[in-house]
Amino acid sequence: MAFQPIVNVSQRQIIYYEALVRGPNGEPALSVLDQVTDALMYRFDQACRIKAIELASELGMRERLSINFLPNAVYEPQACIQATLETAHRVGWPTERLNFEIIETERVKDRIHMRTIIESYREMGLTTSLDDFGNGYANLDLLTDLRPDTLKIDRDLVMECDSDKRRQAILRSLVALAETLGTKLIAEGVETREESRCLLTLGIPMQQGYYFSHPNLEALAEIDDAKYD
């Protein structure tokens, strides 16, 4: 696993670390996921959760841990979460510091099943995020059925937002929408200081991207304080 920080620029601190799967030699997630068959999906999803929690504990992480999960690998929320909760209990990881990011949203055909997962996790004190919001199928229509705690704004809406008036208009609308729905926003793919400053001005202080830190393989990044200025 690699860990990438998610920061709150206003608070000048790391608030989450996202756990990202990597190959044995540091290969990116896509190269690993391409090898996972449907038959192995459930076991792979479970193994990633367990590895992420164990490693976060070993590294002394004190921030919230955000774990990607494949929605189609969850056949029954209460049963599928048991190994995760048992691992958290074994290593002393507080369950309230666990967040689950829904990925592969273009493959989610059963919205009712996904809503059941999110609601079940919320009842257990876990939070959820919808990844890549604003890209492909991860769009507004999902919010008619799903009620995630956090929306992660895709890089396509973030890039060059400091000089793109249309992107700024869309981001302002998302800020207003999130406030109405009681959902928080995280901007993904922040790569420049100008983008970060623009997002903060627009009301999106929670940010993630290479500007702050690349994912660190089995290590936790520290943010240069100047990045918040």
From TrEMBL:
<protein>
    <submittedName>
        <fullName>Diguanylate phosphodiesterase</fullName>
    </submittedName>
</protein>
<feature type="domain" description="EAL">
    <location>
        <begin position="1"/>
        <end position="229"/>
    </location>
</feature>
<dbReference type="InterPro" id="IPR001633">
    <property type="entry name" value="EAL_dom"/>
</dbReference>
<dbReference type="GO" id="GO:0071111">
    <property type="term" value="F:cyclic-guanylate-specific phosphodiesterase activity"/>
</dbReference>
<dbReference type="Pfam" id="PF00563">
    <property type="entry name" value="EAL"/>
</dbReference>
<dbReference type="InterPro" id="IPR035919">
    <property type="entry name" value="EAL_sf"/>
</dbReference>
<dbReference type="InterPro" id="IPR050706">
    <property type="entry name" value="Cyclic-di-GMP_PDE-like"/>
</dbReference>
